[in-house]
Amino acid sequence: MKYLILALTLFLSAPAFAVEPGEVLTDPALEARARALSKGLRCLVCRNESIDESNAALAKDLRLLVRERLVEGDTDEQAIAFIVDRYGEYVLLKPTASGANLVLWVAGPAMLILALGIGGTYVARRRKAAEAPGEGLSEAEQARLNEIMAE
Fold first, then answer.
1. How many Å apart are CA 85 and CA 31, to the nearest integer?
2. Nearest to 93 by CA among 43, 34, 35, 40
3. Are residues 19 and 78 in the same domain?
4. Is the pLDDT at 19 greater than 50, yes or no?
């Protein structure tokens, strides 16, 4: 039982091991800013994991770069802008909703609205077609039907 608890403890605390003691800044305010920024940056090796949680070497380099920029006096926005300029906007876990990304942000809801409109039109037309009375049989067709039914 104690091995299970130890394994669960190690598994659940794995993200805490990502930031190594040698990376931690001595100034607690700068370290808190660095941790906050690191949580918003994507590990380029692990994809949908922040550099704060990742153990990859590139994530460590990015964490050190963030701390270096903060020590040099950059604001949070300047540090993020420096990293985005160097690695591209893909490094952001939550991309900005401007420029070319605006198309991606708008495309999903626009396609949903378009699909609902097409589906609603289809259902309305089907309902209208079902309610429309059909043409009756002509006299010749009715006579032929009566002959067939009599046989």
1. 23
2. 40
3. yes
4. yes
Domain span at residue 134?
A: 108-150
Q: Provide the pLDDT confidence category of residue 13 given band limits of 50, 70 and 90.
A: low
Residues in the chain: 151
Query: To the nearest whole number, what is the mean pLDDT of the chain?
Result: 83
Q: Are residues 66 and 136 in the same domain?
A: no
Beta-carbon count within 10 A of 92 CB: 16
Return the amino acid letter for 102. Answer: L
If one counts the domains in the chain, the total is 2
Residues 127 and 67 in one domain: no
Residue 100 in domain: no
Q: Are residues 72 and 13 in the same domain?
A: yes
Phi, psi angle pair for 44, to nearest 5°? -75, -15
Is the distance from CB of 35 to CB of 51 less than 8 angstroms? no
Residue 15 has pLDDT above 50, yes or no: no
Distance CA 31, CA 73 (A): 13
Q: Are 52 and 36 in contact (CB under 8 A)?
A: no
